[in-house]
Design brief:
Blueprint: E1 2-4, E2 9-13, E3 18-23, E4 28-34, E5 46-50, E6 55-60, E7 67-73, E8 78-83, E9 87-94, E10 97-105, E11 111-116, E12 120-125, E13 130-134, H1 136-139, E14 154-157, E15 166-172, E16 177-182, E17 187-191
Antiparallel strand pairs: 1-2, 2-3, 3-4, 5-6, 7-8, 8-9, 9-10, 11-12, 12-13, 13-14, 15-16, 16-17
Length: 196
Amino acid sequence: MEYDDSTGILAAAGRDAVANIWDIRAGRQLHKLLGHTKWIRDDWTARVWSVSRGTCDAVLACHAGPLLFVEYSASDKGIITGSTDGLLRFWENKEEGIKCVKNVTIHSAAILSINAGEHWLGVGAADNSMSLFHRPQERLGSFTNTGSKMSGWQLYRTPQKTSAVVRCVVSDLERKRICSGGRNGLLRLWEATINI
């Protein structure tokens, strides 16, 4: 489930292979998105939908296992997918369509959470670890490449493994903090040591 407070749009999906788009402010369903062949996470694809038309614009199918998390990076207008294969894929909208521009294998188990900010990306995994990515070129003001922004994400740090699966990662960019939550109920608060 995902909610955009700026538009009042809610996207929700379940085991019935259907994603539903709701306009919460108007109190009505906008679209019933059909196209997945199984429970949405079990058909091993991510689909890019037009919210205004209710149509599928692209199918992203390159993982070796079910997709467990999809994150849209608003600052990049790109997509990040993570699956049970432990692989992160960075997708970018190019003239010829949406293309994978970077693959990253850091985790040895399923990707359970992805949180993208303007300069930071946090990833939680079932191998009891998280990884933090950033874009140092932009932080230093020297990023002038007109090429791929999504491929500019670089691994910053992989903190020491915890005693439990890292189920969620969220960021508070104003306070320059990242919070991770584990299956054991513990929350960890991380302070950035470089500018966000």
